[in-house]
From TrEMBL:
GO terms for cellular component: outer membrane-bounded periplasmic space. One of its GO terms (molecular function) is carbohydrate binding. Keywords: Signal, Sugar transport, Transport. Residues 46-298 form the Periplasmic binding protein domain. It is found in: Periplasm. It holds the Pfam family Peripla_BP_4. The keyword Signal applies. It comes from the Bacteria. Residues 1-26 form the signal peptide. It comes from Kaistia hirudinis. Belongs to the bacterial solute-binding protein 2 family. This is Simple sugar transport system substrate-binding protein. InterPro entries: Bact_Solute-Bind_Prot2, Peripla_BP_I, SBP_2_dom. Its main location: periplasm.
C-alpha cells in the first residue's frame, strides 16, 4: 500500500491502530472466543519501574505472548513516578483499550483509576501491586516461597547465627512479602543479628545500593551474610564488596535472575552465592494471558502465582549454565508456567 493511501486511511480513522500500535489488523485465532477470533485486541501495560533486567525481560515476555494472541500491546513506562503512572492508566482508558495490566506501583495512587477502568468495562490485572479489588486478579511470584528458598540456602551455608546486612525498601508489594519471611527467619533464629539495613529503588538502584552497602560494611566489618532480595540490590552489594576487597568474607543471597546476573554469580570469587527466581519473561506472559482470559469472559483466578526456583552458584557452575536460556532448557519449572492458560491461547515462543 502506498504511503499516501495509508495516510488517507489513517486520516479517516481506519488505520490508527495499525500505524500506532502495529497489529490492529492482526489475524484472529481460529476457534478462540471473541474478540480473539477476529484479532486486533488492544491492551496497555502500565509499568512503575522501567529500568533493570527483570522489568525488561518481563516486558519482552508480555510482548511475545501478546503477539501470539494478536494483541496490540502498548507499554507505558512509569519511571518510578506514581503521578505519571496514574495518568498513564487514565490515558489507556481514553485510548479505548480492552485490558490494562498494572505492573508495580503505589496502591493509593492507582486504586481509584483502576476502578475507573473497570467502570468503563476494561479488564484489569495487577502484577506486584495490591489493588485490593475482587475484580482485579493479582499476579505474583510467590514471594514467600522465594524468600524461604533464598534464606533456607543462607541458613544451610552459614548456620543459624551470623551478622547480616539486609537490603529492603518498604512499600513494594514483593519486597514487603519477602520481608515478612526475613522477619520470621530472624525470630526463629535469634543468633542472626541484623547489623545494617539499607537500600534504594530509583533510576540507578544498583549503584545507589552499592554506595549504601559500602558505608554499611565500613561501619560493620563483621557482616558475613547479606540478604538482598532484588537482583539490582544484589548487584549493588557485590559492587561494594568488590570495591572494598571483601568479596571472600561475605555471601549474598538474592531474588531474580538474568543472563547478566548469571555472569556475576558465576564469576571467580563472586560473593553472590544463591538467588531464588522465576523467569520474568514467563511472568510477563502470564500477566498477558490473565488479561486475555478476562477479556474473553473467562476467569483466570484471583491469585495467579508463578513459582520460583532456587539457583545456586555451585549448581550454575557445575552445569555450565551461562544464560537464562540455558536455565530454561535445564529447569522446565523455570522456563514455563501453566498459570492462566487455556486451550485457545498459543504459547509464547
Ligand atoms: C522494587 S520491587 C523489585 C521486585 O519486583 C519483582 O517482583 C522482582 O522480583 C523484583 O525483585
Amino acid at each position: 500500500m502506498k504511503r499516501r493511501t495509508i495516510l488517507r486511511l489513517a486520516g479517516a480513522g481506519l488505520l490508527v491502530g495499525s500505524l500506532l500500535g502495529g497489529s490492529a489488523f492482526a489475524e484472529g485465532i481460529a476457534g478462540a472466543p471473541a474478540p480473539f477470533d477476529k484479532g486486533g485486541v488492544k491492551v496497555a501495560l502500565v509499568t512503575f519501574i522501567s529500568a533493570g533486567d527483570f522489568f525488561q525481560a518481563y516486558q519482552a515476555g508480555a510482548q511475545k505472548q501478546a503477539k501470539e494472541l494478536g494483541i496490540d500491546l502498548q507499554i507505558f513506562s512509569g519511571r518510578q513516578d506514581a503521578a505519571a503512572q496514574r495518568e498513564q492508566v487514565e490515558q489507556a482508558i481514553n485510548l479505548g483499550v480492552q485490558g490494562i495490566i498494572i505492573d508495580h506501583g503505589q496502591p493509593e495512587a492507582l486504586k481509584d483509576v483502576a476502578q475507573k477502568a473497570l467502570d468503563a468495562g476494561i479488564k484489569v490485572v495487577a502484577f506486584d501491586v495490591n489493588l485490593d479489588n475482587p475484580k482485579i486478579p493479582q499476579v505474583e511470584q510467590s514471594d514467600h516461597e522465594l524468600a524461604k528458598a533464598a534464606l533456607g540456602q543462607a541458613l544451610a551455608d552459614n548456620g543459624t547465627a551470623f551478622n547480616a546486612g539486609y537490603v529492603y525498601v518498604a512499600g513494594f508489594a514483593p519486597l514487603d512479602r519477602r520481608n515478612e519471611i526475613w522477619e520470621e527467619v530472624k525470630k526463629a533464629n535469634p543468633g542472626i543479628v541484623e547489623k545494617a539495613h539499607f537500600g534504594a529503588v530509583n533510576d540507578t538502584t544498583a549503584t545507589s545500593t552499592a554506595d549504601q552497602a559500602k558505608a554499611a560494611f565500613r561501619a560493620n566489618p563483621d557482616i558475613t551474610v547479606v540478604f538482598a532480595p532484588y537482583d539490582e540490590f544484589a548487584r549493588g552489594v557485590k559492587l561494594a564488596t568488590d570495591e572494598l576487597g571483601i568479596s571472600d568474607k561475605v555471601k549474598i543471597y538474592s531474588a531474580d535472575v538474568s543472563t547478566a546476573d548469571i555472569t556475576e554469580i558465576t564469576a571467580e570469587g563472586s560473593p553472590w552465592v544463591a538467588t531464588a527466581a522465576t523467569n520474568p519473561a514467563v511472568v510477563g506472559a502470564v500477566s498477558v494471558r490473565a488479561v486475555a482470559k478476562l477479556i474473553a469472559g473467562e476467569d483466570p483466578g484471583h491469585n495467579i502465582v508463578v513459582k520460583p526456583v532456587l539457583i545456586t552458584q555451585k549448581d550454575l557452575r557445575a552445569a555450565g549454565i551461562k544464560t537464562v536460556e540455558d536455565l530454561d532448557a535445564k529447569l522446565p519449572a523455570f522456563g514455563q508456567s501453566d498459570a492462566a492458560t487455556a486451550p485457545w491461547i498459543p504459547a509464547a515462543k
